[in-house]
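Continuing from the previous page...

OK, I double-checked the sequence for MarR family transcriptional regulator against my notes and this is the correct one:
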Amino acid sequence: MATTRTDPLTFEVVQLIGSVVARYHEEYERAAAEHSLTGAQARLLGLLSVEPLPMRRIARKLKCEPSNVTGIVDRLEARGLVERRPDPDDRRVKLAAPTASGLATAKLLRGSLDFAREPLAELSDDERRTLRDLLRRMLGDDAEL
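Thanks. Re-ran it with the corrected sequence; updated C-alpha coordinates here:
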Protein backbone atom coordinates (compact mmCIF):
# COMPACT_ATOMS: atom_id res chain seq x y z
CA MET A 1 0.00 0.00 0.00
CA ALA A 2 1.37 3.42 -0.97
CA THR A 3 2.09 5.97 1.70
CA THR A 4 0.65 9.46 1.29
CA ARG A 5 3.17 12.13 2.16
CA THR A 6 2.10 15.51 3.50
CA ASP A 7 5.48 17.01 4.37
CA PRO A 8 6.66 20.41 3.05
CA LEU A 9 9.10 18.87 0.54
CA THR A 10 6.35 16.75 -1.03
CA PHE A 11 4.07 19.80 -1.16
CA GLU A 12 6.81 21.81 -2.91
CA VAL A 13 7.45 19.03 -5.46
CA VAL A 14 3.71 18.78 -6.20
CA GLN A 15 3.52 22.57 -6.68
CA LEU A 16 6.52 22.51 -9.02
CA ILE A 17 5.02 19.67 -11.08
CA GLY A 18 1.80 21.68 -11.31
CA SER A 19 3.75 24.71 -12.55
CA VAL A 20 5.53 22.62 -15.19
CA VAL A 21 2.21 21.16 -16.39
CA ALA A 22 0.56 24.60 -16.55
CA ARG A 23 3.44 26.12 -18.53
CA TYR A 24 3.51 23.14 -20.89
CA HIS A 25 -0.23 23.45 -21.58
CA GLU A 26 0.01 27.21 -22.13
CA GLU A 27 2.78 26.76 -24.69
CA TYR A 28 1.03 23.83 -26.35
CA GLU A 29 -2.22 25.84 -26.70
CA ARG A 30 -0.27 28.79 -28.14
CA ALA A 31 1.58 26.59 -30.63
CA ALA A 32 -1.67 24.84 -31.63
CA ALA A 33 -3.44 28.18 -32.17
CA GLU A 34 -0.64 29.27 -34.53
CA HIS A 35 -1.74 26.36 -36.76
CA SER A 36 -5.47 27.05 -36.23
CA LEU A 37 -5.77 23.93 -34.08
CA THR A 38 -7.16 23.35 -30.62
CA GLY A 39 -4.87 21.85 -28.01
CA ALA A 40 -6.75 18.54 -28.27
CA GLN A 41 -6.36 18.49 -32.05
CA ALA A 42 -2.64 19.20 -31.73
CA ARG A 43 -2.16 16.46 -29.10
CA LEU A 44 -4.02 13.95 -31.26
CA LEU A 45 -1.97 14.90 -34.31
CA GLY A 46 1.20 14.51 -32.24
CA LEU A 47 0.15 11.01 -31.16
CA LEU A 48 -0.62 9.99 -34.72
CA SER A 49 2.73 11.30 -35.96
CA VAL A 50 4.34 8.45 -34.01
CA GLU A 51 2.02 5.74 -35.36
CA PRO A 52 -1.51 5.32 -36.74
CA LEU A 53 -3.90 4.36 -33.94
CA PRO A 54 -7.44 3.03 -33.51
CA MET A 55 -9.94 5.45 -31.95
CA ARG A 56 -10.23 3.56 -28.65
CA ARG A 57 -6.48 3.61 -28.10
CA ILE A 58 -6.37 7.34 -28.87
CA ALA A 59 -9.14 7.88 -26.33
CA ARG A 60 -7.18 5.95 -23.68
CA LYS A 61 -4.00 7.93 -24.37
CA LEU A 62 -5.84 11.27 -24.31
CA LYS A 63 -8.00 10.14 -21.37
CA CYS A 64 -11.27 11.04 -23.05
CA GLU A 65 -14.35 9.38 -24.51
CA PRO A 66 -14.08 7.67 -27.92
CA SER A 67 -16.94 9.86 -29.19
CA ASN A 68 -14.80 12.95 -28.47
CA VAL A 69 -11.94 11.41 -30.45
CA THR A 70 -14.29 10.79 -33.38
CA GLY A 71 -15.19 14.49 -33.48
CA ILE A 72 -11.56 15.59 -33.29
CA VAL A 73 -10.55 13.16 -36.05
CA ASP A 74 -13.50 14.36 -38.18
CA ARG A 75 -12.29 17.97 -37.91
CA LEU A 76 -8.67 17.04 -38.66
CA GLU A 77 -9.78 14.89 -41.57
CA ALA A 78 -11.81 17.80 -42.99
CA ARG A 79 -8.61 19.88 -42.96
CA GLY A 80 -6.63 17.16 -44.74
CA LEU A 81 -4.37 16.47 -41.74
CA VAL A 82 -5.67 12.99 -40.86
CA GLU A 83 -7.22 10.08 -42.72
CA ARG A 84 -8.98 6.92 -41.67
CA ARG A 85 -7.70 3.61 -43.01
CA PRO A 86 -8.35 -0.07 -42.31
CA ASP A 87 -6.13 -1.77 -39.75
CA PRO A 88 -4.03 -4.31 -41.71
CA ASP A 89 -4.29 -6.73 -38.76
CA ASP A 90 -8.09 -6.41 -38.34
CA ARG A 91 -10.05 -4.98 -41.27
CA ARG A 92 -13.04 -4.30 -38.95
CA VAL A 93 -10.96 -1.66 -37.11
CA LYS A 94 -10.28 1.79 -38.55
CA LEU A 95 -7.00 3.53 -37.80
CA ALA A 96 -6.55 7.27 -37.72
CA ALA A 97 -3.34 8.18 -39.52
CA PRO A 98 -1.68 11.48 -40.37
CA THR A 99 -1.48 12.62 -43.96
CA ALA A 100 1.75 14.11 -45.30
CA SER A 101 0.38 17.54 -44.40
CA GLY A 102 -0.52 16.26 -40.91
CA LEU A 103 3.00 14.93 -40.37
CA ALA A 104 4.49 18.25 -41.47
CA THR A 105 2.17 20.16 -39.12
CA ALA A 106 3.00 17.83 -36.21
CA LYS A 107 6.71 18.39 -36.87
CA LEU A 108 6.22 22.17 -36.86
CA LEU A 109 4.26 21.93 -33.61
CA ARG A 110 6.98 19.86 -31.93
CA GLY A 111 9.62 22.28 -33.15
CA SER A 112 7.86 25.26 -31.60
CA LEU A 113 7.65 23.80 -28.07
CA ASP A 114 10.75 25.33 -26.53
CA PHE A 115 9.56 25.65 -22.94
CA ALA A 116 11.06 22.39 -21.67
CA ARG A 117 13.92 22.05 -24.15
CA GLU A 118 15.85 25.09 -22.97
CA PRO A 119 15.91 24.17 -19.25
CA LEU A 120 16.58 20.52 -20.11
CA ALA A 121 19.56 21.55 -22.24
CA GLU A 122 21.22 22.80 -19.05
CA LEU A 123 21.02 19.34 -17.48
CA SER A 124 23.66 16.69 -18.11
CA ASP A 125 22.76 13.45 -19.86
CA ASP A 126 22.83 11.67 -16.48
CA GLU A 127 20.51 14.29 -14.93
CA ARG A 128 18.04 14.00 -17.82
CA ARG A 129 18.09 10.19 -17.57
CA THR A 130 17.49 10.42 -13.81
CA LEU A 131 14.60 12.86 -14.34
CA ARG A 132 13.12 10.61 -17.04
CA ASP A 133 13.40 7.53 -14.83
CA LEU A 134 11.83 9.31 -11.85
CA LEU A 135 8.93 10.56 -13.99
CA ARG A 136 8.38 7.05 -15.39
CA ARG A 137 8.41 5.66 -11.85
CA MET A 138 5.89 8.27 -10.69
CA LEU A 139 3.58 7.50 -13.63
CA GLY A 140 3.88 3.71 -13.36
CA ASP A 141 1.69 2.01 -15.95
CA ASP A 142 0.62 5.41 -17.33
CA ALA A 143 4.21 6.18 -18.45
CA GLU A 144 3.41 5.01 -22.00
CA LEU A 145 4.13 7.78 -24.52
